[in-house]
Every structure is written in structure tokens, then in C-alpha cells.
Amino acid sequence: MIAEILADTKTRMDRAVEAAKEDFSTVRTGRANPQLFQKVMVEYYGTPTPLAQLASLNALEARTLVITPYDKSALKGIEQAVRDMPNLGANPSNDGNVVRVTMPELTADRRKEYVKLVKTKAEDAKVHVRGIRRKSKDELDALKGEVSDDDLARAEKELDAVTKTHVDLIDEALKRKEAELLEV
To answer: Residue 30: pLDDT band by 50, 70, 90 thresholds?
Structure first.
């Protein structure tokens, strides 16, 4: 029973770390990157649809991205969704076939804002990991009468070690993203 709880905890924490890394990839650096548009939702026939399902994204140059829709009728919706995207500051242009997005040059102040944003996202991910730990600790405490106190103490130490490992993984990803953002 204890092994199942710890295995489930580790799996959920792994997913939380992966979600944090994906979240970091949506914050832009100096280069145009198709991952920036990963979470863009486009209004398509009245339904919010992920941009990746409606178009292909290609980086032409360091700061230019081309979005080629599979259905030309989605062109205006894609352009509007990119324009409304927070933290991007890009102005898309539409030539009737594709949407070109030219990313503005990042200023030092804007880079610092992005670092703050990434730190906030990292802290949210750590809070999520600690919430998973708390739930697992409650599940272990519920086993108090069924298993020995030594087994529970060992399980709690293992739970703390798993939690620390996952928080450290989030910190490492944060350091990498921070260095990437501050690189000129």
C-alpha cells in the first residue's frame, strides 16, 4: 500500500515538472520559436481550438515566424488570436495565404519582466508539487493503524526526498530558462 502511494506521488510530481517545463517554453526569448504559440487558442467556427490543430508553424529567421493555416477561412481568427496573445508584443500580418509574425527586439526591461514571469510560474509549480506531497502525506497518515510506525516514518522520509528532487528539477529548469532569457 505504501509503495503504491509513493509510486503514484512520483508519477504526479513528474507530470507537474513536465507541465512547468512546457509552461516555461511559452515565455519567449530573443528568437521566434513555434513553442511560443503552443497555448494559443483560436476561435474556429465558434469553438476555441489550439493553433497547432489549425496551422503549421515555421521559423523563417531568428525573429520571424510563418503560420500556414490548413483552412484559409481560419486566417483572420489566427491573426486575431496571435495579436491578442499576452506577453508577446508581436504584430502579425496576413497576406491572404499565411500569417507572418515578426517578434520585436527584447529590451533589457522586457527581459527582466520575463524573468519575473518565469519565476512566478516556477513558484506555482513548486506549490503544486508540495500540494501533491501534502495529499500523499494525508494518505500515509490514514494508514496509521494498518502498518507499523517505522514503515510510516521511512515512507515519509522517502516522500520528502522525492519532493526535494522534484523541486530541485523545477529550480534547474528555471535557471536554464533565466539564462536563456538574459542572454543577449
So the answer is: low
C-alpha 146/C-alpha 155 separation (Å) is 14
**DSSP string of the chain?**
-HHHHHHHHHHHHHHHHHHHHHHHHTS--SS--GGGGTT-EEEETTEEEEHHHHEEEEE-SSSEEEEEESSGGGHHHHHHHHHT-TTT--EEEE-SS-EEEEPPPPPHHHHHHHHHHHHHHHHHHHHHHHHHHHHHHHHHHHTTTTS-HHHHHHHHHHHHHHHHHHHHHHHHHHHHHHHHHH--
pLDDT tens, residue by residue, 63-73: 788 999 998 88
Distances (CA, A) of 100 to 68, 89, 90: 9, 14, 10
